[in-house]
Hints:
Blueprint: H1 5-28, H2 32-46, H3 52-64, H4 69-98, H5 112-133, H6 137-152, H7 158-180
Helix pairs in contact: 1-2, 1-3, 2-3, 3-4, 4-5, 5-6, 5-7, 6-7
Amino acid sequence: MQPDRHQQGAAVEDSVLTRIGQAIMLHRAGDREEARNRLTELWDEIGPHGDAFHRCTLAHYMADTQDDPKDELDWDLKALAAAEGYVTERAADTGAALGATSVADGPGPRHPLIALRAFFPSLHLSLATDYAGLDRLADARAQLLRARASANALADGEYRQGLREAIERLESRIDGEAGRS
Length: 181
């Protein structure tokens, strides 16, 4: 029996996420260059009009493999743009399909829309870190506000608490740097 188109599409999507995960493991094991090479190859395969969830995830982790802080910022901005575009598209699609039902009433917790919404605090925190590293403290503070607001929208738990602590650490660092200026 042949798999249907939906099953084939899911297998392709799973293989993309698997390959992203493999590159992340390489990076965490210390092979930054090979991780960057694999993510670059996969980015080229996905293309600018590929799945926004994949582009967001890949760009977010690609940022971590960069040597130049400006390149890291560029990749984090690509990740945020893909996430925002995905949420906007899906919210419109879900609203049209469900009538007055909100997005929160739609997909389950494993749906990419929910995953990306949970990803926003991390995306904004990464951007805040990038901006702070480039001595763009006003931009860093603006991203910290967005990170805090999106973290506050998450359910209580370890992930939310870890984000809050990271936000506070970066905020303290930025305040310390501003005080020395």
